[in-house]
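User: Before I run my own analysis I want an independent prediction to cross-check against. Here's the chain; please return only the structure tokens and, at the end, one sentence I can use as a sanity check.
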Amino acid sequence: MSTKYLIKNASISTFWRSFGIVTGAVLDAVILAHFGLGGETDALFASLAIPLLVSSALDLQTPKILIPVLTRCTEDEGNEAACELVKVLLTTFALILGTLVLILTVFAHFLIRIQAPGFQASTLQLGVRLFLILAWLTLFQGLAPVLQSFLFSRHRYLVPSLSKLMTTVPAILIVTFYHARFGIYSVAMGFIFGSVAQLLLLMITARKQGLTFGLRWRPRDARVLGIVKSFGHPLLGHGMSESKMFVENFLASSLGGGNLSVLRYASRIIEAISGVLLGGIVTSTLPLISVYASEKKFGEMKKSVLDAIRLILFLALPISCWLIFTGTPMMVLLFERGRFSGADAAHTALLIALLTPYVIFGRLIGITQTPFYARLDTKTPLLSVILFFAVYISTIWLLSKSMGIYGFAIASSFASVMTAVTMSALLHRAFGPLGWKGLKKFGVRMAFVMGLTICAFALGHTIGGRFLSESLAAKLIRFLVPTALGFTAFLGASVGFRLLGRHHLDALVTR
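Assistant: Structure tokens:
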């Protein structure tokens, strides 16, 4: 049951989120073509740091908290009670986030200066002005996860999976048509309009699921207070984890113009690919695990965790190889135009390769945290986040001076590995043996499959490298040849070693 459920619903999320990767890449290409890597894009990323920290924290943590709560509320009290709870939560979130926006705008100059002291005066002022616009992302993108959680609790995955697509398409159009008139401000305007479009789509879909909208302010409601309080540990943990962004801004601002931007773009590509292609597994696992946890079926719950880990490894390993072997030709194909050079593409691709361990271990962290969230335990995942932050900070201070911008990528990958190992140990202590021996057979087969896959990627990289022309056809060949050979070998070997079978395809197409 759990395997079919995961494959079916993760495929929905992955398929539609993959369009978010495409539109996100197009948006990045448009921004880089018009503004390049320099002071304007550095100011943009500095101004995005706090709004993205808040919105990403809510985007990741809200479903982990609200899906189990709404699932139990629906089972115990019915759909109307769950809808009423969502309305109260939307009102509460809107008030809190609206107040936060006002605070951010008042302290805009201080917040930009403290995180990027190495900026020139003009870049600093530009960052402040952009921040005054982008601060509103915390409101629009902060409300969206509440509606997404409501839809996930009803096992509706399609529209929440379109969120990235709905955010980036308006941004692409606005930057394309108005960059000459508004400059870098067109990017900020695009993000705002895209976030509003995303929120409206979620509201329309939630209404079709029985959710009517209206203000429900209940500041003394014990349940609401308990839910808001339960966000304390997850948000603190996420804040500590993501505060590495501010450490990066602080240190990279002194490495010269463009270094902060190239790190941000490499991180964005890694986050987009791992989030879109693998995030659907974590998203689909939590509702299932929440049901098993509420019914005290811990054996089924642990089996679901193992199924999710197996699926993550099956997808993440070839994706990581693909990023390593095709990083440079992909960056050249997508972004080498205008003010973005071939040297910039190679620079970004190397950072992407160093960040690939996060593709695997970042999602393993998410999976191993789900059983704790399912039983409404938010303290245990916080311990792993504290470790991540401590390992990252200590590592980056050692590496940034000697390795420059590459030290940031190595530190991030190392911290994700250590965090995943820690969460596995905490999971074992809390729920008993997970049954890792059950993955032994899968691991052996996967090792043979990946051996053949790596050889195919390497062969494709060698063949593609012989096409030295800078024409569009040559760029396509350098990217498509290793991609085609690598993934063809992976699929063929997976079938040959019986990692893929007919029952997997049945689960994929059954709706």
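Sanity check: The first helix runs from residue 2 to 35.
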